[in-house]
Write a structure and sequence with these properties.
Length: 155
C-alpha cells in the first residue's frame, strides 16, 4: 500500500496502520484548522461488514435473516479471535486514538451494527453475489440518524 504526503509518495513505504494514523491525523488537524470556532464536528465509527466463510472474493456471504447473538458477534469481530471481520474494530482503535485530543465528537455505530447481519442487501434485484458491506433494510441506518439527533438535542 502506498501513501502520499504533500503530493509525494512516502518512501520507503510504510505499514497500513501507520498510513491510517497519518491520514487520520492530517484529516483531523485540517478540519480543526479550517472549521469555524464552535462548529460541531462528529466522526462516525466504522460500519461493520458481515462476511462469513471467507472474504467477499473468497466465497464469503451474509445470508442471515435475523440479527446475530453476542457470542457470534465476538466470533466475527473479536480482536483476540482474529475474527473474519476484525478490521472494523482495528480501524476504530486508530480512530479513537487519533480523536482523543481533538474537539470531534464520536458517533459510535459499530457495536450496535455488528448484530445486524440481516440488514444488508442480498441477491435481490438481479445481483449475482451477496452484498455484505452496504446497508439496505430500514432500521439500522435510521438508528444511526436517531443517535446523531439525540447527541445534537443534548447540546
Amino acid at each position: 500500500m502506498l501513501f502520499f504526503e504533500k503530493g509525494l509518495p512516502v518512501i520507503p513505504p510504510i505499514l497500513p496502520e501507520f498510513g491510517l494514523d497519518m491520514a487520520l491525523n492530517n484529516m483531523i488537524s485540517y478540519v480543526e484548522r479550517v472549521m469555524r470556532p464552535g462548529g460541531i464536528k462528529f466522526f462516525r465509527t466504522q460500519s461493520p461488514r458481515h462476511f462469513e466463510g471467507g472474504d467477499w472474493d473468497q466465497g464469503g456471504s451474509c445470508q442471515r435473516s435475523k440479527p446475530i447473538s453476542a457470542d457470534k458477534v465476538e466470533e466475527l469481530f473479536s480482536l483476540e479471535n482474529n475474527g473474519t471481520n476484525v478490521e472494523t474494530r482495528l480501524v476504530n482503535q486508530h480512530l479513537y486514538r487519533a480523536l482523543k485530543t481533538s474537539s470531534f465528537r464520536i458517533l459510535d455505530i459499530t457495536g450496535l451494527s455488528e448484530f445486524r447481519v440481516d440488514a444488508h442487501p442480498s441477491t435481490t434485484g438481479g445481483k449475482k453475489h451477496v452484498d455484505c458491506m452496504h446497508w439496505c433494510l430500514p432500521g439500522i441506518t435510521d438508528t444511526w440518524n436517531d443517535l446523531l439527533l439525540a447527541y445534537l438535542s443534548d447540546m
